[in-house]
Amino acid sequence: MKAASLLEPAIAKFWEAQKASAPSDGGQIAVHFMLSAYALENLMKARLVELAVANGSLSPTLSRLPREIQGHDLIELAKSCGESALADEYSSILKRLSRAAVWYGRYPVPILPNDIISTTVLPSGELVSLTEYSSNDLHEIFHLLNEFALGDL
To answer: 11 to each of 51, 60, 89, 103, 142, how far by Cα in Å?
Structure first.
């Protein structure tokens, strides 16, 4: 999150330029999304490990990561953490962050044909773009990070 926070002044400048209909570069937003997605994914997976240790279901002699913490789907990870209501409320940003975690830094193009589709239907039935950003995104990202953080961010 330290690296992502360095991009926040550029993101604020981008949204100000959008209000003024001035040309601006939104590339920093994509990088911020990717870094934020990584941070949120790590926090959720840490919470899952913490829960597994607390209930005794995690063996200290693991030979590989448990299946529950191998994916990048932030909605499913949030639900696995017992945060279903949060996952539903923030499904749009979580879907967009999940896509950013997989595609923005790893692969130049999707490896599966269906992954090229840039829209998704949320559980509410709303159709959302996975490639668009909102001026409210930073607020939602900070809220989610704080929900899963062990201390203040």
So the answer is: 35, 42, 24, 20, 14
- What is the token pair recorded at 15? 């949204």
Among the listed residues 82, 76, 86, 72, the one whose alpha carbon sits nearest the alpha carbon of residue 146: 86
Phi first, then psi, for residue 120 (nearest 5°) are -150, 160
Q: Which two tokens stand for residue 9?
A: 């002044």
CA 153, CA 151: separation in Å to the nearest integer?
A: 6
pTM confidence score: 0.81
Return the CA Rg of the chain: 17
Rounded alpha-carbon distances, angstroms, from residue 118 to 52, 70, 81, 94, 109? 34, 23, 27, 14, 12
Output the DSSP codes for 118-129: -EEE-TTS-EEE
| 151 pLDDT higher than 60 | no
Strands 119-121 and 127-129 turn out to be antiparallel
Which tens digits make up the pLDDT trace of 28-64?
Answer: 888 899 999 999 999 999 898 888 888 877 766 666 6
Is pLDDT of 137 > 60? Answer: yes
Q: Tell me the pLDDT of the chain averaged across its residues.
A: 84
